[in-house]
Structures are given as structure tokens and as C-alpha cells.
Write a structure and sequence with these properties.
By secondary structure, the chain is of the alpha/beta class. Helices cover 24% and strands 29% of the residues. The chain has a single domain, classed as Survival protein SurE-like phosphatase/nucleotidase (Stationary-phase Survival Protein Sure Homolog, Chain: A, 3-Layer(aba) Sandwich), CATH 3.40.1210.10.
Length: 250
């Protein structure tokens, strides 16, 4: 029987993770290990300076006082009796496209699972309000069998973004690359009652309009499927940097 670990960065009480838990049970046994509260924008953080406290809420369901990556580690190495065959992270409340993947706890959990050699899918929905969770379920029902039949190599995960429309209105699936975000001043300065400034980050900016990107696919009503690798090495720059003659400077 397929063993599935479900996590997210929106927290154990999010409507989305509760919906997906029920849906994924059609594929096999589902364990839920998720943060006890929202951890949006936490990226790939791992808690090393404080203890991780865990609450068992019911059979195969745990809330963790930690990050999504903490949840994956605890689940794989401590909480689950058996190693999962698949990790599903999400559904995220809002898209994770383009450069946003570097900040996403949802995507980080899937990448961490892939580093541990487990097949993984991060799934996010756009826009942020009034989600059609049945559309996310429809997409996973298509993707999971394909992924298990033809697994990705280690250290590679799928980043999936789903339009917030009914399944019948989807245009289809597109395999995409990450869009590039053009950042603008996205910091709002405020004053507290004592006149001391403080700041809010708003995540402002826009995505470049390019064909073949996750942003373009999502905007057009397609499900965006982007394979992501944990290896960030820019291999194409090896020759350039080798010409700097750094070895001779030692």
C-alpha cells in the first residue's frame, strides 16, 4: 500500500490540508505532519537552536512547533514507522511561481523530501482566496500515478501551480520553467506610537511576460508543472571562473 506524507506551510489547521488528507486516502495510507501554525515564507529553514515540540492530534496526525522542513525530517526519521513513498506539500494558499520558490516553505518541504530520496510534489493554488480544492485533487489524481510509474531522479521534485477555477475550466497541463520576477520597492515604512519606524515587506513586483514560464501558464488557465532540482550549481560558469586564474593566486 502506498505510504504518503502530507505537509504544508499554512499550518495543520488549514482547510486545504484537511481536504487533501481525505482525498489522498484513496491512494493509500496518509500521515499528516505539519506546522502547528502558519510558516509562510520560511523557505528551507531548519530549526537547530531550539527544541521541536510535537503534538499527536489523532492517529497519523501530528502538529509540529517548527518549519515545513522540520516536519519532513521528523516524519521520515522519527514519527513514521515506515519511510513514505511520496511526500505531498500543500495545497499552498497562493501561488509559488518564479523566484518565489526560493522563499516558499511549501516548495522547500518537497525539495527536502527529494534530497532524502523520496518522490515529492509541492502544490499551490492561485489566487489566494476562495480555493477550488477539488481542482487541486483533480490535478493530483492525474499526476501521482504518472510520477510513481516514472519516478524523478533523486534531488528533483515537482512544483505544481493550479488555477483557482473548477476542474472543467482547466485548459490543460504545461511543463514550464520558472518565471523571472522584476522587483520594485516593496517595503512599507510605518511609525509606532513613539515615532520609531518599523517596516512591512509586501512582496511587490511583477513577473516578466515570457512564454514557457509557470507564470504564463497559470495566467492562461493551465496547470503549471515545473521540475525543480536541489542542485543550484551554475555549471555553465565553470569555464568562465576557471579563466580567472584563482589557482595561481594561492
Amino acid at each position: 500500500m502506498l505510504k504518503i506524507l502530507l505537509t504544508n506551510d499554512d499550518g495543520i489547521n488549514s482547510k486545504g490540508i484537511q481536504f487533501l488528507r481525505s482525498f489522498l486516502e484513496k491512494f493509500g495510507l496518509v500521515w499528516v505532519v505539519a506546522p502547528e501554525g502558519e510558516r509562510t515564507g520560511i523557505s528551507h529553514a531548519l530549526s537547530l537552536k531550539h527544541p521541536l515540540r510535537v503534538k499527536r492530534l489523532e492517529d497519523r496526525v501530528w502538529a509540529v512547533e517548527g518549519t515545513p522542513v522540520d516536519c519532513v525530517h521528523l516524519a521520515v526519521f522519527r514519527l513514521l514507522k515506515e519511510r513514505p513513498d511520496l511526500v505531498v506539500s500543500g495545497p499552498n494558499d497562493g501561488p509559488n511561481i518564479g523566484d518565489e520558490v526560493f522563499y516558499s516553505g511549501t516548495v522547500a518541504a518537497a525539495i527536502e523530501a527529494s534530497i532524502l530520496g523520496i518522490q515529492a510534489i509541492a502544490i499551490s493554488m492561485a489566487p489566494r482566496d476562495g480555493h477550488n480544492y477539488d481542482t487541486a485533487a483533480f490535478v493530483l489524481e492525474k499526476l501521482i500515478p504518472k510520477l510513481l510509474e516514472d519516478p524523478l531522479p533523486a534531488r528533483t521534485a515537482l512544483n505544481v501551480n493550479v488555477p483557482n477555477i473548477p476542474p472543467t475550466e482547466l485548459k490543460g497541463f504545461k511543463v514550464t520553467r520558472l518565471a523571472k520576477r522584476v522587483f520594485v520597492d516593496c517595503i512599507k515604512e510605518c511609525l509606532d506610537p513613539r515615532g520609531v519606524p518599523y517596516y512591512w515587506l509586501s512582496g511587490g513586483g511583477r513577473f516578466s511576460e515570457e512564454e514557457g514560464t509557470d507564470h504564463e501558464a497559470l495566467k492562461a488557465g493551465f496547470v503549471s508543472v515545473t521540475p525543480l532540482k536541489a542542485d543550484l550549481t551554475a555549471y555553465e560558469e565553470f569555464v568562465r571562473i576557471s579563466k580567472w586564474g584563482l589557482e595561481k593566486d594561492l
